[in-house]
């Protein structure tokens, strides 16, 4: 491995040579970017399962891809497969990928219909509250490989590895809403450490179900503004009331700049810096003072060798939850200070919803597109600004503006924080 192209710390520069994306706005980079910059919303009324009695009845679902079995693993795999096909085609790679796979995937559990079916197989119990033990007993007594794969999120990476010829044991990770960014960081580190010339980084989440809605609703995390659905996600506004759960996937092909140049590949962007910090404040809530998020952003900037004045655009985590949006604003204010008012900050989640495990990678793809096209995607539904959050959110309408460095934030439940710095050029 030659290392003619090195960063400020003497490490191989990591280039993005292929991208693929699926969200509720559509399949493929072209359709997604057109809809996103056009201010379209992919959030709709849920039709996949009954929602009577639920406080939240909307989602950014991906229901336009055919899957043979209606479960979260199959949906997540199908989206990951399609975005990887798109990314490899854009990268001009065919045949075996010949590099490691880093996959961000949702933690999968059996759907309730499957649980009830298993419960029917097991003998009745005389012990109150023993349903879970009966469930485990049924799993042991009647082996069901199909069911086992349907609830095993590690099966997604195994299938992707077989399909695309990646090397080594595929890595599957789940770090809540930071997962997609974490997968990219692992790929960057593998190349920087000289362990590979290329890496396949994939993030996917097709886990929207009635149970997922109920769990997040119990945490008071979801928007209940169901009518009209497309108006529910309104980051940084005074009347925001929660995020809109969504599905999606994204794949990025990462290569050392040396390898990309050697094979004549087009370079779409540079993964310049990565930062991550843990937040020990609460199992779901972020620290109100934003300390861990501040440290995460600063770590990404330091890793990139860029100061606060070098960032031209921020792709915000921007979930539309009251607490998280405030925390992110305080964090950005602490890091960027007097520079922040002049930095456009928008949230893709206003249009696609929160794609959870996939969000960090989906938004990384859109961040690179922002630099490639000189177009800033808007934050839609920005009608009632929060006076406590003073940001240029690119309100409601896209903006033409060339930027050369972008920060993308991912702050997850359970204290998982990750930020990425991407640039248009290596320098």
UniProtKB/TrEMBL annotation:
CDD domains: KAS_I_II (cd00834). It comes from the Bacteria. One of its GO terms (molecular function) is 3-oxoacyl-[acyl-carrier-protein] synthase activity. InterPro entries: Beta-ketoacyl_synthase (IPR000794), Ketoacyl_synth_AS (IPR018201), Ketoacyl_synth_C (IPR014031), Ketoacyl_synth_N (IPR014030), PKS_Beta-ketoAc_synthase_dom (IPR020841), Thiolase-like (IPR016039). GO terms for cellular component: cytosol. Keywords: Transferase. Residues 11-424 form the Ketosynthase family 3 (KS3) domain. It holds the Pfam family ketoacyl-synt. GO terms for biological process: fatty acid biosynthetic process. Pathway: Lipid metabolism; fatty acid biosynthesis. Belongs to the thiolase-like superfamily. Beta-ketoacyl-ACP synthases family. PANTHER family: 3-OXOACYL-[ACYL-CARRIER-PROTEIN] SYNTHASE, MITOCHONDRIAL, POLYKETIDE SYNTHASE-RELATED. This is Beta-ketoacyl-ACP synthase. It comes from Ensifer oleiphilus.
């Amino acid at each position: 491995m030659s290392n003619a192209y090195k960063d400020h710390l003497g490490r191989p520069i990591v280039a993005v040579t292929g991208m693929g994306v699926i969200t509720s706005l559509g399949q493929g980079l072209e359709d997604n970017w057109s809809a996103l910059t056009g201010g379209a919303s992919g959030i709709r009324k849920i039709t996949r399962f009954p929602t009577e009695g639920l406080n939240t009845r909307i989602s950014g679902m991906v229901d336009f891809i055919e899957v043979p079995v209606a479960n979260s693993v199959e949906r997540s795999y199908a989206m990951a497969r399609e975005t990887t096909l798109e990314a490899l085609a854009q990268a001009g790679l065919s045949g075996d990928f010949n590099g490691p796979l880093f996959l961000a995937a949702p933690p999968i559990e059996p759907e309730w219909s499957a649980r009830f079916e298993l419960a029917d197989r097991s003998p009745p119990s005389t012990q109150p509250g023993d349903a879970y033990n009966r469930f485990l007993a049924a799993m042991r007594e009647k082996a069901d490989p199909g069911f086992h794969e349907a609830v095993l999120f590690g099966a997604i990476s195994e299938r992707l590895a077989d399909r695309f010829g990646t090397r080594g044991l595929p890595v599957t990770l789940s770090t809540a809403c930071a997962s997609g960014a974490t997968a990219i960081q692992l790929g960057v580190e593998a190349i920087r450490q000289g362990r590979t010339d290329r890496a396949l980084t994939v993030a996917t989440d097709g886990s929207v179900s009635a149970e997922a809605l109920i769990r997040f609703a119990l945490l008071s995390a979801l928007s209940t503004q169901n009518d009209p659905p497309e108006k529910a996600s309104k980051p940084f506004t005074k009347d925001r009331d929660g995020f809109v759960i969504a599905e999606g996937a994204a794949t990025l092909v990462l290569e050392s700049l040396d390898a990309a140049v050697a094979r004549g590949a087009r370079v779409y962007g540079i993964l310049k810096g990565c930062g991550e910090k843990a937040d020990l404040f609460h199992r779901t809530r972020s620290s109100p003072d934003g300390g861990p998020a501040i440290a995460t952003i600063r770590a990404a900037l330091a890793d990139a060798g860029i100061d606060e004045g070098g960032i031209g655009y921020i792709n915000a985590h921007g979930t539309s939850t009251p607490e998280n949006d405030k925390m992110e604003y305080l964090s950005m204010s602490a890091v960027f200070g007097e520079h922040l008012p002049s930095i456009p900050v928008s949230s893709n989640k206003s249009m696609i919803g929160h794609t959870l495990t996939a969000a960090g990678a989906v938004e990384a793809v859109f961040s690179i597109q922002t630099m490639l096209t000189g177009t800033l995607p808007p934050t839609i539904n920005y009608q009632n600004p929060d006076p406590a959050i003073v940001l240029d959110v690119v309100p409601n309408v896209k903006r033409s503006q060339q930027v050369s460095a972008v920060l993308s934030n991912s702050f997850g439940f359970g204290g998982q924080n990750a930020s990425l710095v991407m640039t248009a050029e290596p320098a």
